[in-house]
Amino acid sequence: MAKLDADLDPLWQDLDWAIGQMLIMGWDGTEVTPQIRNLIEQHHLGSILLTAKNLKSAHQTAKLVQELQTIAHQAGHPQPLLIALDQENGGVNSLYDEDYICQFPSAMGQAAAGSSDLAYKVAKATATEVSAVGVNLVLGPVLDVLTNARYQPLGVRATSDDPQEVSQYGIAAINGYKDAGVATCGKHFPSYGNLDFLGSSLDIPIITQTLEELSLSALVPFRNAIATGKLDAMFVGGCGITNPSMSVNHACLSDQVVDDLLRNELGFQGVAISECLEMEGLRTEIGVKTGTVMAVEAGCDLVLLCRAYDVQLEAISGLKLGVENELITKERIYTSLRRVLRMKKSCTSWPKALNPPGISLLSKIHPSHLALSLKAYDDSIAVIRDNEKLLPLTSSMHQEEELLLLTPLVKPLPASSLTKALLEAKSRSETPTMHEKWAHRDRGAIMSGEGVFRELGRSLARARHGKLLHTSYTANGVRPVHENLINRASCIIIVTADANRNLYQAGFTKHVSMMCSMLRASGQKKSLIVVSVSSPYDFAMDKSVGTYICTFDFTETAMAALVRVLCGKFKSQGTLPGTLRKSRKAVKSRQHWLVEAYDRNRDARGLDDLLQSLARASAPAHPFLQTTSAHTFELFNPNIEEAHYVVRNSSTQALYGFCATYFVEGTGILGALFVDPAKRNVSIGRSLHRRALRGLTQKRGIKKVQLGMPFPGVFLGIPADDSAGLKQWFANGGWDLQFPRRLANMAIGTLSSWKAPEGLLQSIQRANISFDLIHGLDNADSVLHHVKAHSNPEVLELYRFALQETKTCGVVRAKGHAESLLGTVIICSPGSALAGSIPPLQPSASEHDDEPIGGIVAPIVAPSTPQQANLVLQGLALMGLRQNKAHKAVRSVLSWVQDDACEPLLAMGFEVVQAFEEFTNSPDNVSVSVALLASAPLMMGWWLTCVVSQWQDLA
């Protein structure tokens, strides 16, 4: 029998119980059915998927979830049920309640608003609401890169076609969900962003990109999200993969995808959830029994079966049969069980599951969430073009002129007031006769389709206090009724919804546009506005459409925001997603911003807010932003001149950008530069950079300028990971980047279990190397002379600072023959004053204060033979680790390690946490760049001091 962990309940020795935890199932209906009750009680089902078909209101949902958890509790489940929900916002929401649950923009809409901080707040608000009714797992965020944006059904559910932007907003959403206490599930691995569809409903869409292509694009957000350590689950899609190195019919049934790619290559340790095995193509080709076994064999921990009870029973029997046939081992089952139970422990407990706060909490938070919803939609609406200056309508039209609204027939969104009204009407109506069914066989769909935009027309008429005509259009094209209305109206608004996939909409719009042009040529007033209420790609690049607006979804809230834009209630700030945004903003990047000197009293709070926004938005390549504060950058060192700069909003006191510079003994240093994620692409970074360089190059006695600084040690240089864009930015500015010095931060994560490599001490002793620890400046002359001879002036000041902190810092010296000094390193106890200037030495918000960090900083070894230099370095690190252990540190961070020193430290068990490239130039070279920056277009504006995925264009 497979051995259980000591902390696992002995109940799990019963494989029926363990198998029940490997399944996630749903059903149709708003009440608990005998079937779902039986699955929980008799088959020990551990996870439930709720959909819009289960949920009528917030109150009903809370009651339903509480009943499900009570059934599980009474049936003896050791842990509560996982209750999962698709609540992506935009058009994909399973729970709708206009009184208590707020609507927010789609993922692409949030990206259009240009603020990852807003995305964080939206995710946190969404998760807080669904958590209040008992949901503990949000199936999100969507991490797909919309590589082939024009023809993919995923549409606005994806952030954009830029993998770094998808990473940025995906991680912001993950942080929001986690801070609200729910589990997260990235989707749809490996990607639904560029699928080929073969035509038949039974055909499975396929990925044709090679693994190399996927790695450079589609897999980037998944890799970055996994690296945060906050992604609890991964939804593995059911698509096929066909390329030279892989031929897979269903990704979720392939060990090449789940075990090899997801786990081994990307390092995912959480719960893998399969696509629903009830999908027709899979059932027809493989069968549910075999498919369930294949999913588990592939590495999936939770197998999804959405609603068919007979199919669900078939899956359960399939798993049991897989065990009997020895296709699935008990060890494999317990591996998945541990992952699922670990996720449950992180997001739920019996007291929480049995007593969801429900309406009492929702009613308290609803006003603030409603305000956030309105702001999010107002910020997301994007006016892409208004060449004819038609907006606002109140200025371009007289009140008595007629406005025509032409809308397509679309199905109402599952969670909307219209759908709710239709379902209520259906439940009240009597069963229709056969004649009524035939006579009105298509009428229901048509009426509901018209109804989606009916309120838009009414709201628009009320807002402009004028007459509005409204009718729908279909694949039948421009009919006489349309021609008559177009002849009457002065302005025509055409709504499209995924016109790239519903080509009749594109054809209809082109036809109407041509008619308007002809009528204008004859002297009539015929203005045309096109509004995309889904994918912005409909007419993004079609300049023949002079006024083009995107809303990114057609929820009631989005349509209300659209009306406010059309009538001039506010000016839209939204932008196109991804590469489309970059291509448009290249022209805007020449503007100049007013740069001011940093004022601590005025700007410190704004800088802290800016840093928090960056920390939420940043990818895991720089985890220490969250421990950086405004105080980090101020050294108050008499030997170092500081000059810091800001771009700010003088009305709101918000900081849009910050730059820190230092000057010490002829070296001018650019130590940090940040720009608000919501203010990218508009030259803030360039303005700060230009001002900083002007200040540094005018210093008397300047000999060189440098990118990166160890004191303060936020950024040691340009982040080495994926830094091509950063380097191009500086190269365009005149910097010579040919000869970098590679630096790294390294760490030992668990100090208690670390042991010195066998034979290291003996080797050090044979080399006659001895060590001592000193404090204070009184007996530090030899140390300072050594540092000055072998390092930069800012490192010398770092040593001076550490030696002055006699209670928390010291310097270890390595000595050789005749007491000659071979090397030095700074040692910091947890909570040292030096940690205030070196964020990697501080525990992050996700870590516990009772897990202190010890510091080993700036090892400097005198030139000697490679063998002796390595022994000196390893000896210094060993003494540092011993000191950290003595001060009760849980882990050690070794900061500012030069590249040639990394290898011997890796042999000791250190891992590289971050790598940087420090650059120095002559001031004459860089001063030329100030002029270049003012005129030359920059290729891509990534920036020195930020996680590469965060800074997509500061130029």
UniProtKB/TrEMBL annotation:
Residues 16-342 form the Glycoside hydrolase family 3 N-terminal domain. GO terms for biological process: carbohydrate metabolic process; peptidoglycan turnover. Keywords: Glycoprotein, Glycosidase, Hydrolase. One of its GO terms (molecular function) is hydrolase activity, hydrolyzing O-glycosyl compounds. InterPro entries: Acyl_CoA_acyltransferase (IPR016181), GH (IPR017853), Glyco_hydro_3_C_sf (IPR036881), Glyco_hydro_3_N (IPR001764), Glyco_hydro_3_N_sf (IPR036962), NagZ_Beta-hexosaminidase (IPR050226). The keyword Glycoprotein applies. It comes from the Eukaryota. The keyword Glycoprotein applies. This is Glycoside hydrolase family 3 protein. Pfam families: Glyco_hydro_3. Belongs to the glycosyl hydrolase 3 family.
